[in-house]
Design goal:
218 residues, alpha/beta, Rossmann fold, eight-stranded mixed sheet, three-stranded antiparallel sheet, 8 helices, binds S-adenosylmethionine
């Protein structure tokens, strides 16, 4: 894996086997904030005092680390539970090699292949290693306020944008829950609909099209 600097000076890696990078070249940290933390209204949720985040395709965890940072800035007493789902232990170990400007990320350095969970103050982070098609089955019904959906692209990995997976997301999201993803591809959107989710455009940042936000209610 080759380390790459993105346009906002934050680092990511290029996965040469897949032919895609782990974050947008237009800015990895910017993407975590603008495509995930902001549209899922983490700041407002933090006022309620408790947020449960499912960070699917966790990689190095930029998206949830940013969300935790935003939540704690708004409400330092906020309880945050993060569950990350990731197949590849090698990318989790790369957390040690990057230093994005995300306040809470320094604590993510506690995640190693020997230790895939930690608690820091009111924040708990746990990564379930394995194929998302299996690990989602371990999650409770109606548990999460927010889902981050950040697989490789639908072109490269269409199986990660399937109706079955979005049905699982429908099952684990609270009725008020929201799912955010960077892609507006038709495959993902159609399968979200088939799974019972309602979608809308997410923010347009960097890449050509908007992202997508999905909800259980219109
Ligand atoms: C675009 S990257 C996600 C980057 C990540 N959100 C971050 O902030 O570093 C896609 C991730 O999906 C993971 N992945 C690929 N296939 C998977 C599968 N079947 N189950 C779970 N994760 C998978 C890859 O290992 C990779 O880390």
């Amino acid at each position: 894996m080759k380390k790459v600097l993105t346009a906002d000076k934050s680092e990511t890696f290029l996965n040469e086997e897949v032919g895609e990078s782990y974050h947008s070249y237009t800015g990895a940290v910017e993407e975590a904030m603008k495509k995930y933390a902001e549209p899922t209204k983490i700041k407002e949720l933090a006022k309620s005092g408790h947020i449960r985040i499912l960070d699917c395709f966790f990689g190095m965890g930029y998206n949830s680390a940013m969300a935790v940072s935003v939540a704690l800035e708004e409400n330092p007493n906020c309880k945050v539970e993060v569950v990350g789902l990731e197949l590849d232990a090698a990318i989790v170990s790369k957390i040690q090699e990057v230093n994005p400007e995300i306040a809470f990320f320094k604590h993510y350095k506690k995640l190693t292949n020997e230790n895939l969970s930690f608690v820091e103050g009111n924040v708990s982070v746990k990564v379930l290693l394995g194929d998302v098609r299996e690990t989602t089955k371990k999650l409770d019904d109606e548990h999460f306020d927010v889902v981050f959906w950040d697989p490789f692209s639908p072109k490269t990995m269409p199986e990660m944008w399937s109706e079955d997976l979005f049905k699982e997301m429908f099952r684990v999201m609270k009725s008020s829950g929201v799912l955010a993803t960077y892609s507006c591809a038709r495959l993902g959107r159609e399968n979200m609909s088939k799974a019972g989710l309602f979608y809308d455009d997410g923010p347009k940042v960097g890449r050509r099209g908007p992202g997508t936000l999905a909800f259980k209610w219109e």
